[in-house]
User: Fold this.
Amino acid sequence: MIEEAESRAGILHIDMDAFFASVEQREHPEWRGKPVIVGSGPHERGVVSTASYEARKFGVHSAMPSREAYRLCPHGIFTPGNHQLYSEVSAQIFEIFHRYTPFVEGLSCDEAFLDVYGSYRLFGSAFEIGEKIRKSIREELQLTASVGVAPNKFLAKLASDMNKPDGITEVPTDPREIQRFIAPLPVRSIFGVGGTLAKHLNQVGIRTIGDLQNIPLKALVGLLGENTAEHLHMLAFGYDEREVSTDRVEKSISREYTFSEDEENLAEVRRVLLELASDVGAQLRASKKYAITIKLKLRWSDFKTITRQRTLPFSICDDFSIRDAAIDLLSQQKIDAPIRLIGIGVSGFSNESITKDAQLTLFDDPATERTEQILKKERLSKTLDKLRSDVLDGGDIRLGIGDTR
Ligand code: TTP
Ligand code: MG
Assistant:
């Protein structure tokens, strides 16, 4: 069974609306519907932390000197705020996020990415989970949040901003539709594109993400250097491979390799893939885990990137199963352009080998036989690990291909 990994949305970006100011309006009902400005006093040196949407209409915003905020909005309600309370509310929000997935990456006190790819069976689609979370925040905390639903972090963050406050926005999943969807946005909306870079781009006529899509990569490299150019080019087409990272749980182990020249020789691609697969296997065993899903990644010379993944009948930790699945996934893929990058990863971890359908192990003999075979492969892989580490101990340099990220 081959699944398109990124073809459905599974990443949420959730951001509270006017966070500090909304908490203040909740605590002081008489302030609701009014311009509330949290931060330094109107006649003090110092800045605005945030302002309610009512105050934003007057041009008041975060980081603005409070005296200027007073000039723009003299009837505003200025308050220093209650940071202890904001921390408590922040913990409550994150507790709600964790009900739906362990994969929560906090960006600040009021903002997080959630990976809900694995939550579908329990809680419904990513969009439905986004709505459930918004509902809980509204009903339990009397606050509102805006949500972006997308196949990756970059798009989810762009989306959560599109219908703020109190909105939810789902990005299309078809690559061409994604490109159209983000084309009108200013380059500045790309996270990491600060004032200087945006100005630099504007000077050469690149104002929107669409402009970035239209400029040939080579020209962009000439302007910005290879790393920045490639990074922006990928984002402009809606590609973003960063995982939702959490300190608590490791989600996948992967290795990838960028060819120094785009590779057309399939035998060489296979050779590299096998080596990457063994590296992944070694790391999997080092972390004492078993994995059930194997994912192949291919990037063509034009940067188009695809992933193909397979869920095995039972979880494994040996090199041979990973290598077989990797080669099989590659052989099922039509290769009609030179390959820039190849990668292989494993996910779906457990601490012991489990079958996809756990009952199979109990009642089905062939499954037990497979387990016998697999145990042999595991033993052999472990022997190879030992050999590798002995070679390393002997001071020999190993011909390895590392993670290029
Ligand atoms: P943000 O999420 O950037 O802003 P916000 O929640 O107030 O408004 P919105 O997301 O609807 O645009 O920041 C979250 C909180 O962090 C904000 O309520 C106050 C605090 N903050 C500061 O103290 N100083 C700042 O410069 C910014 C940007 C935020
Ligand atoms: Mg916010």
